[in-house]
Amino acid sequence: MTPTVSVQIVTYNSSEDIEECLTAVLQQTWHIERILVIDNASSDHTVSKVRSFAEPFGEHIQVIKNVQNTGFAPAHNQGIHLTNTDYVLVLNPDVVLGETYVEHLISYMEQHPETGSATGRLILQSSSETIDSTGLVINKIWRAFDRGAGEPVHQWMDSAEVFGVSGAAAMYSRKMIEDISIQGEFFDADFFAYKEDVDVAWRAGQLGWKAYYCANAVGVHKRGWKKGSRSSQPLFVRRHSFINRYKMMYKNLSGYRWLRSLPQLLAYEVAVHGYMLLKEPKVLGAWIDFWRQLPSLREKRGEIRSKLFE
Hints:
The protein is 39% helix and 22% strand. It has helices at residues 18-26, 46-54, 72-81, 101-111, 174-180, 196-206, 235-252, 255-260, 262-279, 286-308; strands at residues 5-11, 34-40, 61-66, 87-91, 95-97, 115-124, 131-133, 136-138, 144-146, 160-162, 169-173, 210-221. α7 packs parallel to α10 (286-308). The relative contact order is 0.13.
């Protein structure tokens, strides 16, 4: 049987981008069984635009309007629970896929069932010769980055296994989703948004799943702000991005692993917290959320440990 694929897009004031995104999904050479648009209480015309766009397609495009902004992670979990397809493509509304994007990813994953996630070559809309992401990498002090970000496209023409895939245009297998979910959550709802894709990649890798970058699958990512330009990022983005790294580390690190990198880790933490204290003190308020969520994080850490030793 032909593997089934659903596409889910979480929107928040995405009226400028959503129609082009949906058009590209509908033009995929691989059949898309279902398209879910989950709107997180947009205050613009996103919902009306999507409903108008979707009307000719009947139940093929489903629109769900949340009464409040639940965040990227909970909204995508919501979509995952509403589908039963073999694969789920998690897609940002500001991404436009090439028409063979899905076909390339599914073809590889079907031939390599140990691969639970895959992504393509995402290019910045603002510069067609510049990479946005070719997957995720993580360094020795557990800082995660988009692989190849800001580098010339021609340097990233070779497909390869990677640490993980960016949630901007990520294909996940249902088997992996079910295998690594914790407390019924694939994406950790405590993250709200930002680095939830890194957390999934880390957890999946620990549990034996592989991730893959397919250079032949191409998408264009608008992105609301340039990487490395902190001044253009809203405070809530900086806070979530900052604290979610520590949530991720708390859940996924075992004792001996962080001890090996302790000198580098301490040097980095002293530097970054000193910088935040002087330049961005409001970001440090995110630690309140960490301590408030610690009981939940502790439970999830325990479940991950249990899965590792099953």
